[in-house]
Amino acid sequence: MVKSYFITFLFGLLSAFSLPSFFLLPFLIVGFYYLFYKINKLKKNKEYFFHGLVFGFGHFLLGFHWIVFPFFFDQKHYLLAPIIIIIFPLFLSLFLAFPSLILGNYYKKFKFNISNIFINSFIIGSIFYFFEYFRCILFGGLPWNLFAHIWAFNNSFLIITQYVGVYGLSFLTIFWVILIIQFIAINKYKITGLIFVSLPILLLSIGPLEKQNPSLETIKVRLVQPNIPQDIKWSKYYFEESIQKLINLSKKKEGLGNVPHIIIWPEVAITSFLNENTNLRKRIINSFNEKTVILTGALRREQLNVFNSLYLISKTRVNFYDKRKLVPFGEFIPFRSILPFKKLTEGSTDFTRGFKRKALIINNHESKVITFEPSICYEGIFPEKNINSTNLDFLVNITNDAWFGNTTGPQQHLVATKLRSIERGLPLVRVANSGISAAFNKNGKTIKLIPHNTEGFVDVVLEIDSNKTIYSKYGDVILILLLSFFLIITLVIDFFLKKKVANVS
Fold it and tell me: What's the average model confidence in pLDDT over 11-36?
């Protein structure tokens, strides 16, 4: 019994090698093939459930191994580390355990054969997809390491998200994997090969919604990556040094070009309440010419509320955006009345959630008005439509991934965030304290990048296009239509397969 569960655990680990930054895509198929094969051999509900749970534990343990690293920066959190590395992936495993339970009961009632293979794969795929989607919205959600993310090794595979979003790509991937598994199970290897290449070909055949237009207006921005170690970031003894490093990197000239008027610093680049420190704001903005706009992460205090904020500061104005999606245990303690823990970030007070999404405006930038949508840290991994009818020019995400050390965490975060540029059809600028900082065009193609654990800056030119993607206009309505379309197609295919089987017999 123990050996059986251990093997299932190992195949769960194996499946996680399909995720960023490994991208060993066939391992996902091999891993899930074993899970489906095993469940088909079992007979009891608890066996279905626990094999799914153990498989999921292996999958999420490797996929989220970086979750434990933030707990090593403070001795007060050391004891939490072994608890988190077990509890967190175990909780996520429930989203594979329950569909495995349903799958086992489905196998009891329905047998897979060539005449019903498409509709059965669609139903099972929809079940697994529903639980992944549920994971993305439950308790604030965690759309990290989705099935869709296995395609991020090649940007061309992701263009379809302009139409159906990242959740649509996840559904197509799940359906594809399960269909392959079922054809292998009935020994139809030639068809398996055709199915295996069908989805990659489909994804590659879908080009961008709009082609690049060389006549588009442009905006030049500077990304500043200070690479300040996490263990000194909040130290008051290094505060002055950190500020000066940010200013110096921001003022350097690249080649013979001028310093861009829009300069972006990472999340909480300033570890103080910037709204209360008028002198610091003046010092920063007086370090540059009068046209310069600084976008920076900093703390904000309003009465008893403390916010993790993005500031827009210039000679003439100050504006801000407050982070709305806070990280549990990192920025607040859930169920604080019964969990006597200290949050990972400095200070004993929990951060307060921001009240609303909003766009920020840069006035009179080279005779233009620039509008951008800010997000902070893991807010960038959540798919969202445009803010009402606001015409946005680009997206800005600031983050601090120094918490994750030299793990796959920063790469996974980058992948999940860059999908917003493709879904929305907007350039995206991502600035991280220790990396990976990058700028993407509206089709998710990397313009420039600053590697992980590197101090530096890059200047990028963003092309501004007012055309909206199908997803940004209609959101998940297109996904519902996609699911309906696939249901009809699978019913039609199985109908003709049944007729063919009946004629042969």
Answer: 95
